[in-house]
Write a sequence for this structure.
């Protein structure tokens, strides 16, 4: 895991992001990244299972991961699911694309033949409606500040976690 400095004040939420082969029913996870409340991050590519054949070049244009790279460098679904279960056990893990991420993690865990040891929730549970409306701008600001040029799972998770922390702190400061 990659360490990062912790933020003072309210603990940051555990945040996860999934990159996928595309969108829709036939898509599957190709990369998962997450950042723990203490700032440690982890990211891994996922080798496509035998039945995972859908590939959308538009999605590949966004995340920049070639299927050949996944075949060569990706980890098997069972290994990735086991890693997630160890690192995230008992936690509530937040994401900003819950419907997609839930389905992609479901495909991963189904392929691995195990159940997740953590609970996936939408970031909307953490913020009121007005603050949630500012999340996209806050995240884009963090991406710019950090100079994140690549759209990858752990970078996206870190930017989301920092943005959430800032929004929650500003909400507390205005109370």
């Amino acid at each position: 895991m990659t360490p990062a400095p912790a933020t003072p004040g309210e603990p940051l939420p555990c945040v996860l992001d999934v990159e996928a082969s595309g969108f829709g029913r036939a898509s599957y996870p190709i990369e998962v990244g997450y950042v723990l409340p203490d700032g440690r991050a982890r990211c891994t590519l996922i080798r496509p299972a035998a039945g995972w054949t859908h590939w959308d070049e538009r999605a590949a244009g966004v995340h920049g991961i070639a299927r050949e790279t996944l075949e060569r460098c990706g980890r098997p679904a069972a290994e990735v699911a086991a890693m997630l279960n160890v690192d995230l056990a008992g936690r509530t893990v937040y994401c900003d694309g819950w419907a997609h991420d839930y389905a992609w993690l479901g495909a991963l865990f189904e392929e691995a033949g195990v159940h997740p040891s953590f609970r996936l929730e939408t970031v909307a549970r953490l913020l009121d409606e007005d603050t949630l409306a500012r999340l996209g701008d806050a995240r884009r600001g963090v991406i710019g500040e950090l100079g994140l040029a690549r759209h990858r799972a752990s970078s996206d998770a870190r930017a989301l976690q920092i943005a959430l922390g800032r929004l929650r702190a500003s909400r507390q400061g205005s109370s």
